[in-house]
Amino acid sequence: MMSGPATGRRKRAYALRALLPCLALIALEMPSARAQTLTPDLLRPVRDGFITPQDSPLRKTSENTADKTSDAANEERLRDKDRPAPSRIGNIPTYGLPAANGASDSGYDSLNRTRKKPKFYPGQARPKPPPGPGSPAAATNMPAISNGRVRLSIPPSESANKTPIPPAMAGTVEGQPPRKRLKIDDDPFGAVGDYAGAFLIKSAVELRGGYDTNPGRLPTPVAAPFWVVAPEFLAVSDWERHALVADLRGSFTGYGNSLPSNFDGGISPAPTNINRPDFLGHVDGRLDVTEDTDVTSQMRLRVATDNPGSPNIQAGLASYPVYATFGGTLGFDQRFNRLQFSAGGTVDRTVYQNSTLTDGSISGNADRAFNQYGGIGRVSYDLMPGLKPFVEVEGDSRFHDEQVDNFSFARNSSGGYAKAGTSFEFSRLLTGEISVGFAERNYADPRLDRLSGLLTASSLTWTATPLTSAKFYSTTSIDETIVPGVSGVLTHTYTFEVDHDFRRWLTAIGKFTYGTYDYQGDGRTDQTYSLEGDLIYKMTRNLWLKATLQRNILNSNVPLASSASTVMMLGVRLQN
């Protein structure tokens, strides 16, 4: 007797043999698979080779449509048999599906466009979806080809058969990602400069000509025409670490005629040749040792003459003696979170050219040459964004090449200053620095009194509107003098300036300057006033036109020392 599992396998084998004839009959009865052809009625596709019953509405519709389409096609072929086929040269091929057709409703597509499902508020009207394949609207709007069948491809865009043009000229092109808007140029007529290696270099030169009613600042005015050549050079490094900046600016003023050598029957207090050079340049460097430690340095040079009307000018000069001050500073900056320490040592030397007199003789100025050695320290704390108070202290000593000057005064001295202030940066509307302190200097000669006074220093810029800005500058210095019995000159200068752009290419500048000169030792006090107006027409980035009108007044408590002058200038600025 067979076991149970063997009996089960035998029963399944008998059942399979019985099903095989049934499966064969089903396979013979099934029609062969055929392709389907689309008809105007997309809901009823017809298999190729399938015969529709005679009384079927679908068959009648297909036959009528086919007959009409066939007649129309025959007439079209007879009418256009002699017409040449359209050329495919220059025509951009079109494709059945647009770019990114199969992208999802979220994320990005192949054109880098964001695809997000729109969000609607309750009760907000929703746009109707476009008609899809198979809908009556789609069947109605779909174009038909010559054989009467519906074309499923999307018609070409308006720019499909046009010659391609650059995107900057095309504007908005269908299927193209939108272009990023360029940043507005804050100074559309400013110098662009050129790169030389890792340095951005900007250069300029100003050529001006005008008329001065009193260039020598004499009590009795003597007018003269003049011309000015003023070159500029700026080089800024573009390094990832460290920095180097060179800023050089100079000018030379030449006058069309000489001043008379006598003044009211005496010797003129102004030279006969009043041509004057002026140069100011410095090179600043920064070495980033660590993230919080920097080594700083500066080299500087100043070339100029004494100001017209100054008591330091000798009587009977043929020309102004030129002096030069050059030196350097080496220091460091150390930051401890918000606290910053800065310190440095300074070395400067001042030398004067010998004076040439109108009688041809030479007068030496070696007694005015001196060396200055000093140090400076500063502590600042970043109290809050835009507000950084500080305290600064400076001390120096001056040693002249000659122990006594031409009037037998020993002018070696030592002094310094201490000041406190803060820097500003409030929303970029008010930026700069302001401070107040006290300065003094002691002289080796006991006949020279101690020189001291209030110290003010500031450099503030207020951007009132995008087209209007106001600036305020103030400086204090203790200058050397050769006036017998006078210790030195305590100089304060205050400047207020307003700039306004009527247009980006038309700028007006108004400037007012007030200065005081305190000659401590003989009681002389001078006051200067300067009112200036400039109009700048910026033709291009490389060419500016400039007109200047200036009024200068010097009031002194010394007889025959006051003067006034009016200056008119027209010039052109070439920059790169």
Features:
576 residues; mainly beta; Maltoporin, Chain A; 10% helix; 46% strand
Please tell me about this protein's structure.
By secondary structure, the protein is mainly β. The chain has a domain at 194-575: Maltoporin, Chain A (Beta Barrel). Helix content is 10%, strand content 46%. The protein has four helices and 25 strands. The chain has helices at 4-29, 57-79, 136-141, 167-170; strands spanning 36-37, 46-47, 194-196, 199-212, 224-237, 243-255, 262-263, 266-267, 276-288, 293-304, 323-336, 339-352, 355-356, 362-363, 370-381, 387-400, 413-426, 430-443, 451-465, 468-479, 488-503, 506-520, 524-538, 543-556, 563-575. The protein has an 18-stranded antiparallel β-barrel. Strand 3 (194-196) and strand 4 (199-212) form a beta hairpin. The longest helix is centred in the first third of the chain and has 26 residues, at 4-29. The model is unreliable at 31-35 and 48-55 (pLDDT under 50).
Structural class: mainly beta
Fraction of residues in β-strands: over 45%
CATH top level assignment of the domain at 194-575:
Mainly Beta
Low-confidence stretches: 31-35, 48-55
CATH topology of the domain at 194-575: Maltoporin, Chain A
Architecture of the domain at 194-575, CATH level 2?
Beta Barrel
| Helix-residue proportion | 10-25%
Average per-residue pLDDT, rounded, comes to: 81
Helices, by number, come to 4
Shape: elongated
Largest sheet: 18 strands, antiparallel, barrel
Alpha-carbon distance between the two ends:
114 Å
Number of strands: 25
What does the radius of gyration come to?
A: 45 Å
Order of helices and strands: HEEHHHEEEEEEEEEEEEEEEEEEEEEEE
